Each structure stands twice: as structure tokens, then as C-alpha cells.
Description:
Blueprint: E1 2-8, E2 22-27, E3 32-37, E4 42-49, E5 57-64, E6 68-72, E7 81-88, E8 98-105, E9 111-121, E10 125-133, H1 137-141, E11 146-156, E12 160-168, E13 171-180, E14 183-195, E15 202-215
Parallel strand pairs: 1-7
Antiparallel strand pairs: 2-3, 3-6, 4-5, 4-7, 8-9, 8-15, 9-10, 10-11, 11-12, 12-13, 13-14, 14-15
Amino acid sequence: MKATIILAGTLVLSVSLCRAQLRLTRFDAAGHMTWTNAVGDAAYRVEFSPVFRGPYRTLTNVVSTETTNSIQVGFLPTSANGFYRVVWTNAPPAEPLGSWEYQGFDEGGSLVVTGKLTFIEIGPLRGTYTFGAVTTLTNRTSHPVGSGQLDDGTIQGSNTMELRWDILSSDRFWLTGQMVLDEYSGLWTHSKDLFFGPFGGSRTVTRGGIFMARRSH
């Protein structure tokens, strides 16, 4: 199995931030998973999906008073891909107002886009975005680049945020993730309708990756 970890709220795939609130420290072929959190007295939900974009199903719930937590999710088969996610379920409420330094990665964990998110209003979330390409992989991963307005964001629950905007009527992009203190991370998704002439029909191509953002001020 290509075992991939997504720690909602901070660390995604094998990409780490040294200042991350929640960090993966171990994951091996026997299915041993260890993560740390700067905050004790936390509750987590460990989830799994055979495909990157989900849906994810719950494997177990963990309530802990420790800053280091370990579980075994089971031995990993060699014949399939899979994605694991750890969600901090009782994390503090999101406080998005301000500017956030943004990084977007492809499904293999390669950095393809950097930029900035700025939130100026809540209910709905409104602000601006700027994305710039880092490598030529941007074309393959389909992460948009450029600048524009954010005017269709929502906070679901206390700290799960979803941002959506239409590049064109047939070209849609959104971010879904958890905001924990000064960190916001999760999945980005780009969906585009392709048309094949007047009689060729159409099909929708959806691609995605992970993103992480950290409050700059």
C-alpha cells in the first residue's frame, strides 16, 4: 500500500512545518502511527479513504491528555493505495481574519504553488487570493494561478472552512480544510468541464492536492 497521512489542521502527506501544532512523527509498514500536538487534552478522529479526495470513513476515535499519541491502524496490504487522516475534533474555533501564507502541493507531495490568502470579513468569508506557480508541475496538477476575490467562504462547525470560487462557469476551484490557531490546511480541488465539439459531448475532469497556510499577521 502507498500509505499516505493527512493530519487535518497542520501536516499533510509527507510535508512538514517545523512550527506545526499537530505533527506526524511516525508511520511504518506495520501500520503504527504516531503524532504530536502542542496541546494536550484533545480528541481526534482517525480516518481512511482508498482515494485521495475521499469520502473518508472513521477508523477510530482517540481522546487523550498526552501531547504524543500512538495507535496501530493495521498491517498495510501491498496491492492498493490508501490515505489516512487524523482530525483534531475539539480544536479551537477558527479565527480567519488577516493574511495567510499559502502553499499548494500535488498528490505526490511536490510544491507547485505559493501565494497568499487574505480574509477581511466573516459571514460569509470574504477576501482575496494570490497564487503563483513554483514549477511546471502546476499544469499537470491543475492548481489555478493568478489573483482574485474570495466571496463564497463558509465555516462549518467551529473550525472547518470551505472556500469556493468559479474561475469560469465550467471551471471551479475550492479549498476544504481545518483552521487550528495559526494554521489552515486540507485539500484543494479543481473541477473543469471539457467539451468536444457540437456533437462530441463533454466530461468533467477533477484534480486535487493538499494545501497548507500559516497566518502571517
